[in-house]
Amino acid sequence: MSYQSSVAQDSLAAAQLEMAGNPNALALRRPFDPVAHDLEASFRLTRFADLKGRSCKVPQDVLGKLVESLQQDYSQQDDQFMHVAIPRIGIGLDCSVTPLRHGGLCLVQTTDFFYPLVDDPYMMGKIACANVLSDLYAMGVTECDNMLMLLGVSTKMTEKERDVVIPLIMRGFKDSALEAGTSVTGGQTVINPWCAIGGVATTICQPNEYIVPDNAVMGDVLVLTKPLGTQVAVNAHQWLDQPERWNRIKLVVSEEDVRKAYHRAMDSMSRLNRIAARLMHKYNAHGSTDVTGFGLLGHAQNLASHQKNEVSFVIHNLPVIAKMAAVAKACGNMFQLLQGHAPETSGGLLICLPREQAAAYCKDIEKQEGYQAWIIGIVEKGNRTARIIDKPRVIEVPAKD
Amino acid sequence: MSYQSSVAQDSLAAAQLEMAGNPNALALRRPFDPVAHDLEASFRLTRFADLKGRSCKVPQDVLGKLVESLQQDYSQQDDQFMHVAIPRIGIGLDCSVTPLRHGGLCLVQTTDFFYPLVDDPYMMGKIACANVLSDLYAMGVTECDNMLMLLGVSTKMTEKERDVVIPLIMRGFKDSALEAGTSVTGGQTVINPWCAIGGVATTICQPNEYIVPDNAVMGDVLVLTKPLGTQVAVNAHQWLDQPERWNRIKLVVSEEDVRKAYHRAMDSMSRLNRIAARLMHKYNAHGSTDVTGFGLLGHAQNLASHQKNEVSFVIHNLPVIAKMAAVAKACGNMFQLLQGHAPETSGGLLICLPREQAAAYCKDIEKQEGYQAWIIGIVEKGNRTARIIDKPRVIEVPAKD
Predict the structure, then answer these.
(1) Which end of chain A lies in a sparser environment, N or C, as judged by fewer CB atoms within 10 Å?
(2) Is this structure's pTM higher than 0.90?
(3) A163 touches chain B (CB under 8 A)
(4) Catalytic residue, candidates B56, B106, B144, B362
């Protein structure tokens, strides 16, 4: 095809420059600088949408209402689904699981898309990809067979901005897919008022490759593999440019704190939950979900509601990116971070593990990844609900050096 | 789950009412009446986006430029792909085809989403589903193993509008999936300025279940299975409410003509290309694509560019929904319908067939579906391009009675 263009070539060259010739050497990569791409210094990707990241989710209760008609139908008609895979739209299990015509194989699939929440287009692509894959990992699936990419190009972008930003997003998405051992073979790009990024992840596997997340038992403990507070961090970072907002939080946090938290959040959101998923098999996990748009408690409640046994989840500890709990408090109840309702993007896995395995799980993941995981709660007898105790302990999670 | 709501129940009841208790009896279904759902009489679904249907596609040349970086990489690195399945994002083949770890099977996948172009939410859902599936059918794949639904709920909808419209869209999508012998097991719903609808279709199949669309030979003929002009029809219909627009076309078309064309377009867009795909195997098709956002010529050119043999496509006949060619002419060059550039949504398949099989193909599809297909052009020696002759014959396709 003959769609050559020197503009696209230039942005590609710039992208390669930023990656210092090694797409996987993230540490070596220089942060996105709009001026280096001939864009205005004030260019901010996050201004191309009014909502950020997974906070664009339709509220959990509204969504439940909207998809009700579909769910009723399925439960009456579709007996080809295993007991586990009650199909749900956007709520319920993280992936759909469909038995195939071909001997014993299952199709495990998920889709997700959302809006920019960091200003670095390459990182935004990586985060979007990690976020889509995370739904597979939450089911203990570690191999992805194929990915599709979904892109909305903002009507408000100039041609120049588009030609710089979109290839960088695509490249970030693709590099993350390569890191996950898969590749992007197609997708869809449309024009939309807001810039939007997402994808589809698909695996065909044997039933023993995924873990049905309904097997929590009394005495299990809950492990979380990434800190909370990504949404608070990306907002606080945006407020550095907005004096009236910044004034609300500057008494509790320094500019340097916010920058560190922002980078910790980017680092965390772009990290794959793949090793976390692999270790679920090794340490006999009883179920897991990933923490995204509905916040820690929303996802915990959803996981609890799917349990076979009469259990409930009680959360005692909240690992939060350093200083972000203080920022959230200074903003009144806006984020609901300590109440467990702050949306996260590409958050960690929340895993039910046998009590005697949990410490070993956390040790192993830290050894393999260099990132901590935390025991944050317990599974007790109950009516399939989840709650955070009155005064949870906040664990301040520092930025990595 | 306890997301019961009397509002959602009411809209469901209304939906069932409209379908006269039989979701497949489309003919019995009353058209969508906003007032019957307690919405304003002036409610129009198409007002929740500034672009319509597949015209939201990023222009073909721009997209080519944007995805270039990805394509370069794949052609260098990914040798696990068959010669056919050069992965492309949004352009190129209609589906991605990925060989699987499991003996001899392939993953065939596609995704698409766009904006409302008809005012009936249920029909909009059906059209969106037919449009997504159409990419599988274009590859000769007749079975779909799983679908996911993508939904953008407009920020501009009232709660009431949302609670009426979204379940109807979902139901239309689902009914179309059932008609196609598949089901919707998951998806993603986000808030977006424009209402958006789409999905993902996935099949796991043997390589003989799909038809590599690269085998056209000199002497083949081109068959089209649905009329052109859907975009013109939905625009003309919207102009019935807009006197200054209506005045531009009222000399060439009556209100009745426009209403008929609109219903013909809805009927056509919601019709599955499944039988067309099945018959491709029976009559030895050499390749096919579906006609959507890039218009007849755009997709023809794309198909031509993928051919193994040195061939070109020449199009002589343009079947167009009755009166829509006249409307397009009256609008100056706005639609570029007769130039082959008018976007279509959920258009027909454009199929290369051996000359001696083409008439039998057209006869068979008409017998099975009750809809005509047309021989519109020929395959001659050439440099893998496509063109429409200077004065193509316009075939007026009347609304069905």
Answers:
(1) C
(2) no
(3) yes
(4) B56
